Amino acid sequence: MDDAFTLLQRAVDLLSEDAVAQNGQTVGDVREDIGRQEWEMVLGVLIEIGDVHPVSVDFWELLAEAARQMMLDRSRSWCEWRAWEVQHGTVRVTLSLAGGEEGRRRTAFSGDGRLRPMWDIGNRTVGGERELSIARLWVEYAEKLGPGETADARLAPLRPEQWRHLKCGDVITMHEARPIVGTATVIEVLPPRA
What we know:
Helix content: 25-40%
Largest sheet: 6 strands, antiparallel, barrel
Number of strands: 8
Radius of gyration: 19 Å
Strand order of the largest sheet: 1-6-4-3-7-8
Structural class: alpha+beta
Distance between the termini: 24 Å
C-alpha cells in the first residue's frame, strides 16, 4: 500500500493542469506544496479542487486513504462521501429544522453523514399511503445542526433511484419519528458521474 504522500501525488496526477480551487489555488500550487511537504495543506487544496471540478471516484478514494493515514477523520469521511456521490449522484437541499418546542428533536446532531433520517419525498406505497425514504445527511460548512437552525446539506439516499424525480424547488420533509423534524427545499440534483 502506498503512503499518504504518494497517494496525494497520484491524486494530483488525475487532475487537469487548468483545475483551480475557488480560492484560486492551482494544480501548480499543489505541486509546489508537495515539494515543501505541506501534506495537510495539499490534502485540503485537493479537496477544494475536487469540490468544484468533476473528478473521478479514484481521485476521492486516493484522498480518503491519504486522510485515513494522516488521521484526519472528518476529511476521510468527506472524501468517502464525495466518492459515493460520484457513483450515485446526490441531492443538495436547504434544510430548516423545527425549533425545539415544535419538533421532536431537542439537541443538535453531528453533520458528518452519520444521521440517517427518513424523508417524505412524495412517494406512495401500492396502497396509496405515504412511503418514507432513508438518506444519510451531511451538513455543509457546519459540524452540527440544531433545532431552529438552517443550513445547506447533502443527502445520500439509501435507494437513489427512488429520488430521481426530485427537481430544484421541491419541498421534502425530514422525519425521525411521527412529527416532522424539518423541511428541506431541493437546491440541486446531481446525477452519477461514474
